Amino acid sequence: MHIRRPHDRSRPGTKQNTQGFTLAEMAVVVLITGLMLGAAASIALPILQKARRIETDQKMANIARALDDYAAQNFRVPCPAIPDTKTANPPWGFEAGSGPAGDMVPPDCGSDAAGWEGIIPFRTLNIPVDWIKDSANHYITYAISPAFAQDVMKDSLPVHSRCRTVDWFMAAETYDPTVTDPKTGKSAVNVLIAKSARKARFCCSGALPGTDLVIIDVNRQPQIAIPRQVLPASYRPANVIFPDPYAPDVQVPHDDRATAPVYVLVSHGRYGLGAWTGVGRAKFPLTGATPAQTENGNGDRVFIEIPPAERTGKEMGFDNIVLWRTQDMIFAEQGKSCSLP
User: Fold this and answer.
1) Could you write out the DSSP letters of every residue in 241-290?
2) For 16-59, how does the pLDDT look when each residue is reduced to its tens digit (9 = 90+)?
3) Buried b vs exposed e over 149-173: b needs ≥16 C-beta within 10 Å?
4) Closest listed residue to residue 140, CA positions, set 47, 263, 306, 223
5) How far is it, in rounded angstroms, from Cα 297 to Cα 178?
6) For labelling alongside 92, which of 15, 123, 132, 297 has CA 20 to 30 A away?
7) Which has the minimum average pLDDT: 28-42, 51-65, 158-172, 202-216?
């Protein structure tokens, strides 16, 4: 009986498929794989960028919270830290001008032309060092209006008239208008004591208004329409007042404001254009930066904030993250007010 055996492809004379994939088939596989990887990358990249933005946003919000807490307790913001990891006086991470131990209140960090801008003084704020870099591992810039970092224990610091109204004073001695001073023969002067002089010197600082930060929008218009006054009034001493809070109908002129940007935080984006390098006072070059990125890294006290929805034309590549606070915003974040003592 003849038994039919399965076809043995190994026997001589049988046909074998020894060619495998042809070059054309391999090209198709490579093409399909490339298309799939490209599609995956196009989906993953925006997700990754969004995740990095969220991480940086969170870090900057934490820094702002620490600065606001510090200001509410001390009635000043710390000076920026020197952007040099080798600095020893003060030690790395303490506010500039705070001495070899980092525990002194700087007399005026604005007296140094470079003292108003640097990095986050993480040791002064007692926050983790990893907060001071964004998700791209670049230092976040911290800049201030110097008037708001001054030592409010100084009685001579000038105070804007917004905090010179009746709400901010209590009477120590008041006289009838008919009473005269026996030494001068003139009407006796009422003695008034400030209720919260330290807070007034921060909330209504009249010092160094010409050195304030300027925050502008995409149209290069100031985000605060009316700047602070140029010629401040002063407590010197506290019972010499202007305007007189007990005079009838005392009002602060509508075009004379105490509100100003106290500080600004800037993440300089994916490539860190204009960010501090951590070596001396060197910054990463601004080559290839948009006009607004250049503005945020050129050290001229002017900073620009452009929301994603407004990034068109020359600013299509703008990827800075900007966060800023006025003294009123700082106290509002604390659930408090800068309008009352």
Assistant:
1) -SS-TTSTT----TT-B---EEEEEEE-TTTTTT-B-BSTT-B---TT--
2) 555 566 777 677 777 777 667 666 656 655 666 677 788 999 99
3) bbbbeeeebbbbbbbbbeebbeeee
4) 263
5) 61
6) 297
7) 28-42
